[in-house]
Amino acid sequence: MRELTFGYSPCPNDTFAFHALAHGLIDAPFRITPVLLDIEELNRRAHRGEFDLTKLSVGAFAGVGSRYHLLRSGAALGHGVGPLVVTRGAVPFDEAVRGRIAIPGKETTAFRLLRLAAPALGEVVEMRYDRILRAVADGQVDAGLIIHESRFTYAEHGLTKAMDLGEWWERETALPVPLAGICARDDLDAATRAAAERAIRASVQYAFDHPTASAVYVRAHAQEMSAEVCRQHIALYVNEWSLDIGDEGMRAIKRLA
Known about the structure:
This protein is α/β, with parallel strands linked by helices. It folds into two domains: 2-78 and 176-256, Periplasmic binding protein-like II (D-Maltodextrin-Binding Protein, domain 2); 84-173, D-Maltodextrin-Binding Protein, domain 2 (3-Layer(aba) Sandwich). It is built from 13 helices and eleven strands. It has helices at residues 12-22, 39-46, 61-64, 93-96, 109-117, 132-137, 150-153, 165-173, 190-209, 215-220, 227-237, 240-243, 246-256; strands at 2-8, 30-36, 53-57, 68-70, 76-78, 84-88, 101-103, 124-126, 143-146, 159-164, 177-185. Strands 1, 2, 3, 4, 5 and 11 form a six-stranded mixed beta sheet that branches. α5 links the parallel β7 and β8 (124-126). α1 crosses α11 (227-237) and α5 crosses α8 (165-173). It is globular and about 55 Å long. It starts with a strand and ends with a helix.
């Protein structure tokens, strides 16, 4: 049986959604070798075409060009899912972005949204997403652009929300926030791409139908995250658009990419 490499993140939404595929719990004409990496690392490796299937930030699509093709299943988009800009104390957004701001990567959708909302930025400092809250709290930077579970925990670090970029996007476009999608490398034939799309959709559906089946897998990759934050994370980022992007989702992606 053919084997495909599949790059996705260790975040609860991905381990929940792709658990069944990774563990052979659904029918597929191939096996996958999962490679779990931070989303910006996946974006970087896509430039080299390292994985047959990979999760990619919508903000990275333009840089990757025709090397990968978007699949309609497995995407992360929706309402109320956007990145936040946080600061120490109440700081107006326009002032926050003129300072030194930590971002989770220049190819992330979060950074693309930030550049659209605030074209004139101060000094940008790239760091792994899970280090940003501490960097803001410790005064290493003036503000932080946060993604993933950080949106649930920033207040625990004594930080304040300066802007919800998802809310800004939805006001501007009346579209869901398109965060990331699953893509197939361009050298995969059309039949394999179609089979991968079906298998990923089946894996997401399995997760919805058996919501506790992935619990051990999810916890193994989210050891520092509380069970409640894991639950919130999955509930927010895995939704009907994860089964199929749909026409509205495609419009959102085309508008942002």
